[in-house]
Amino acid sequence: MKVQFVASNNEGMQWEFRPNEVRMDVHPGEVARTSFFARNPTGKQMVAQAVPSILPTKAAEYFHKTECFCFNQQILEAGQAVDMPLVFIVDQALPADIHTITLSYALFDVTDAKKPDATPAPDKNAAQQPPKG
Question: How far is CA 90 from CA 24, 55, 79, 102, 124, in A?
Fold first, then answer.
């Protein structure tokens, strides 16, 4: 069967981003490896997050990524380029009517995104006040 790879940048994302292979033949049940290229052409450090989608949608439950750059945010310095790994297995139970799977990634600039705050520490003053009464 064939797996096709597509890469796109979300609005405002300035990186070069593309699959190193646009198509590969895979055997269900076997580990397959490929990678995607990314380059930050800007003059500043940037952080990106790749969001995957799979077509046809019913193939998603049979496509298992064991290593993917989409699992973590990617930080690239100004001018830095990297090959980002993707390791996957297409399940042998894939329906026979699916001959091609398309894995698409949209790359988002999350440089300025705020991370969720950690649980606030308890108020030390509240714990030290004497009981009332």
Answer: 12, 13, 35, 12, 53
Per residue in 65-92, pLDDT (tens digit) is 999 999 999 999 999 999 999 999 999 9
Q: Which fold has domain 2-111?
A: Ctag/Cox11 (Pfam 04442) (2.60.370)
| pLDDT of 121 over the 60 cut | no
Rounded to whole angstroms, how far apart are CA atoms 58 and 63?
Answer: 10
Amino acid at 91: D
CA nearest to 16, candidates 59, 52, 61, 46 = 46
**pLDDT single digits (tens) 34-46:** 999 999 999 999 9
For residues 3 and 25, give the distance between their C-alpha atoms in angstroms, rounded to a whole number.
6
With 0.70 as the threshold, say if the pTM is over it. yes
C-alpha 81: how far from its chain's center?
A: 17
Could you tell me how far CA 23 lies from the centroid of its own chain? 19
